[in-house]
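Q: Please design a sequence for this.
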């Protein structure tokens, strides 16, 4: 089914959120600010994943399956995993295209793909995430998913693999740091925003490491919500060009992350 809505106008003339371009692809124009960059002047994974979240929500809304509809069924969309790979440095303050499309779904899991490109069509980054529907009361996966129809799952050349395999992440990590979820890091539900986890990871890097390495890929699994004001123990270490990170709160693992860097 082809859905017709206006395209988002980056200059603010039309307050629309995106458009369907072809083959089930939903597109937004995006521009990252100059302060959303790393030591090398490229846009950070934290900033990019924030846009991934936004376009996913806009796409679900455009399909009539967004937050309000989910709440009417007593549930909400939750992000379970995200993988991101950079193919080039993402420039700030430049008009770019961010595409997203629904992939396969199985056993209550909904895969979603992302592609960031410049206006000449060069791919700058790709991503894939796993979404699921959680019951508002029980905070467990809901079985009421019959209303989720017409996602239009498709496959696109070059998309990242839709898999449940985990990368290798050591169980025991020697370094420790405490963080507390602040209002600036929380989402509208009062929990740590999914993108903020990647900001925390980047802030663990020493200045020397950040200057000598460029992020190539990051994988994260969200296991337990982190409410506003909660303290989190970050257990991490860097081996070669890889950051391994596990977060724990209230004696339970809340997330795991692996970020791989190339030396420059």
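A: Design:
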């Amino acid at each position: 089914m082809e859905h017709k809505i206006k395209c988002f106008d980056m200059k603010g003339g039309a307050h629309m959120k995106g458009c369907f371009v072809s083959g089930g692809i939903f597109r937004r124009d995006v521009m990252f600010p100059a302060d959303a960059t790393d030591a090398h002047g490229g846009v950070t994974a934290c900033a990019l994943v924030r846009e991934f979240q936004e376009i996913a929500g806009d796409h679900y809304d455009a399909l009539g399956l967004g937050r309000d509809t989910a709440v009417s069924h007593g549930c909400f969309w939750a992000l379970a995993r995200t993988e991101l790979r950079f193919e080039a440095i993402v420039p700030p303050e430049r008009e770019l295209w961010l595409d997203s499309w629904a992939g396969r779904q199985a056993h209550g899991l909904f895969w979603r793909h992302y592609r960031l490109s410049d206006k000449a069509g060069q791919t700058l980054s790709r991503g894939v995430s796993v979404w699921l529907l959680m019951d508002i009361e029980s905070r467990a996966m809901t079985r009421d998913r019959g209303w989720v129809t017409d996602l239009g799952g498709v496959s696109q050349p070059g998309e990242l693999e839709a898999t449940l395999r985990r990368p290798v992440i050591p169980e025991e990590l020697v370094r420790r740091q405490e963080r507390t979820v602040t209002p600036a890091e929380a989402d509208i539900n009062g929990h740590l925003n999914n993108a903020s986890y990647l900001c925390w990871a980047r802030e663990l890097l020493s200045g020397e490491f950040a200057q000598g390495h460029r992020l190539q890929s990051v994988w994260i699994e969200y296991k337990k919500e982190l409410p506003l004001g909660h303290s989190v123990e970050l257990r991490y270490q860097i081996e070669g060009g890889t950051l391994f990170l596990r977060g724990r709160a209230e004696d339970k693992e809340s997330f795991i992350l692996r970020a791989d860097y190339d030396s420059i």
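Q: Thanks. Anything notable?
A: The helical segments are 45-62, 67-72, 196-203, 207-212. The chain has four helices and eleven strands.
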